[in-house]
Amino acid sequence: MSDRVKGQVLRQSTIFSSLDEDELAVLGGLAIESWFKPGEFIFWEGDEPDWFYMVAAGRIKVLKHSSLGKEFVIAFFGSGEMFGEVAVFENKPYPGSAQAVAETRVLGIRRSDFRSFLAHRPEIALKIINILSGRLRDAQSRLRDLAAERVEQRLARTLLMLYSKLGSTLPFTRQEIADMAGTTTETAIRFMSRLKEGGIVRSVRGKTIILDVSKLRLLSEGPPAA
Amino acid sequence: MSDRVKGQVLRQSTIFSSLDEDELAVLGGLAIESWFKPGEFIFWEGDEPDWFYMVAAGRIKVLKHSSLGKEFVIAFFGSGEMFGEVAVFENKPYPGSAQAVAETRVLGIRRSDFRSFLAHRPEIALKIINILSGRLRDAQSRLRDLAAERVEQRLARTLLMLYSKLGSTLPFTRQEIADMAGTTTETAIRFMSRLKEGGIVRSVRGKTIILDVSKLRLLSEGPPAA
DNA sequence: AAGCCACTATGATCTGGATCATAGTGGCTA
DNA sequence: TAGCCACTATGATCCAGATCATAGTGGCTT
Known about the structure:
The structure is a homodimer.
Chain A: H1 3-11, H2 21-30, E1 31-36, E2 41-43, E3 51-57, E4 59-65, E5 71-78, E6 82-83, H3 85-90, E7 97-100, E8 104-110, H4 111-119, H5 122-148, H6 151-166, E9 169-170, H7 174-181, H8 185-197, E10 201-204, E11 207-210, H9 213-221
Antiparallel strand pairs in A: 1-8, 2-7, 3-6, 3-8, 4-5, 4-7, 9-11, 10-11
Helix pairs in contact in A: 1-2, 6-7, 6-9, 7-8
Chain A binds a DNA duplex through residues 150-151, 173-175, 183-187, 189-190, 192-193, 203, 205-206.
């Protein structure tokens, strides 16, 4: 893959869309491409933060393990989204592991290269501040949800969040949805079954199609109109 | 309070420590000071993000309410720490409410002023990226904890986090600790009583003194060596 | 076309921690 | 100096959701 082509990939991201052709080519020149099969890890929690990553194609998840070994999914990222950035900016070990969930191509930029690139491109720094702010906002909402809302609402909100990001067809298994909502697979299945009965979603193996967003929104807000 | 004095206050913060006297005075000139008594709100969740804030003296907490009205504490902030920044950078309503927990003095800078100041001070932007990264990292750890660890460990970790930030004397009631750990006051009290029995903490009304950090660390990591 | 495995499904039981109740106590206000 | 209120304390009960168990099913591999 040429530097220019890598530049084009980078352009599709939120962060770098404002760069011109030449700058993109420079950045592309710093980027190294790699492929991962489903299940393979890009990095592990605790690794040294040598690389800043962006998904070029496919999908990855960032996860953390609990002391009992249970997996919790921080987030899924698709094309054009960066990950591993927290570690790079802080220069501390990655706080979570990144695992491909599909055939995935990622671009990696060395930490030092990326930081010096950033240093003389203030508008990129501002974009990054924006993205981090958004992620922090999300994380804080989820914190509140995990601490104070019941499973039903957490699941409903998880689906809504995915809906607003990906549209009505969600390529996730119940297990993955459960891991995002912080519950068990069984509970997620039971909940989804009820949604199906209520005509709120339709589903095929590994996929969920949202049919009625407004009903879902109701569920996410309060006790089910008891 | 003069602009220069306000500048001195700002200098004590992590973000602005690198600015020189004159720049600090400029920034000080943009800042407006206000006072809050314990319990008073600086802003409410949902308010327009007109101000960027920094604590000059005292302490505030940022909290969110659940759909049932329960309060969850996102974080406490003391002198030199910024808050409300997520809203300012994203230009979306504040995602949480900010409430003074002590007699508190804050400096506020108008959103537009702060953003234009930032635009031509890239090194400040990088500092902010650092702080946001740190907060995101914390939030993600807490997410994992809330989703997958039991209350005991969450409480132990909450105490450790406060310890690393504030030292061994923690000026919080059990209720406040419970709200941070995402549990109830009763559960926090029971847990703290056991810590007292074990000689791990000492406590007086509204305060907790940590005596044995390493035992606390053990508790935070696994089941209590059953 | 057999067999396997990941995914979906559903019932039965168990339990951590919330909830409810009641009370002691120290500091602050009137 | 009385009395109130926020905080600490502890016992009793309850329940949402985890855990355990068992099974059906569709797609992919060999």
